[in-house]
Structures are given as structure tokens and as C-alpha cells.
Amino acid sequence: MNTICPSHLASLGEDFLLLDIRERFEFNTYRGVFPNLKNIPFSEFDEELPTLDKSRKTLLICNNGLRSRTAVQFLAERGFADVSSVMGGLVKWQQNGLPMTGTPPDSYRIPYQILRNVLPKKSAIELKIILGKIFRSSCGSPHRWDISS
CA–CA separation, 70 vs 55, rounded Å? Predict the structure, then answer.
């Protein structure tokens, strides 16, 4: 499956569609700020699919990447030639310090809070290292994670 890090989107130019597939209430609450951004909830794909250009590069984003990975397969099976998932969704978007509008939920701090409760004697730096090992990827880094208690 094709994935791309949110921080690499700008390097693609502007000839693609960034499709936020979260429900409309989620999109209206908070979203990334990016040209060519459109909201079509995954739950509405059947109705909206005919409005999309199957030959255009399409990048799908959701909250954490789970829905977008499923939707990539869905679109590929329906003839979309160039479709990818934005790795880590808006969680990774925020971790990379990319612009957002609205108010994202506090759930972005949950991994740190869980570790803080499970490993209370570890320092913030030690917890960042542990989180980095757990969520290791080429996309984002623990130093950008909000680990305030």
C-alpha cells in the first residue's frame, strides 16, 4: 500500500487531491490546512465516487490513518490509478507541526499519558525515546509530540 508522510505533501506540487474522508462533523471541528483539500466522508463514497477523477493522484487522510488505508484499497478496487494514504493521518499531521484549523481532540497526548501512568519513574526524555521506538517511522519524530502532563 502506498503511503506518504504529511510533511512530504508540499513536495508533490499541487496536481493532486487531498481527500479528508472523516465524517463531516469531524472535518468541521478540525482539519489540516492545505490546498486541494476536499471532504468526502468514507460513509458517503458510494454517492460521491462518480464526482472524482479516477486518473488524478488522490491522497486520503483521516484521523490516524486507519480509515484512509481501508479507503485506499476500496478506491483501488474501483479503478483509481494513483491513490495513497497519508501516514498517521491528522495525528501525524499535528506531530509534524503542519497548519491546522479548529480544535483537535486531546487524544494526541494519550500515548504519553498512558506511558506516564505505567512508567511513572521515567523522565520525559526517556518516555520520548520509548514512544519513538514504539511508533518508529520516517514520518514525524517524538520531539514534536505534546507530552505535557
Answer: 19
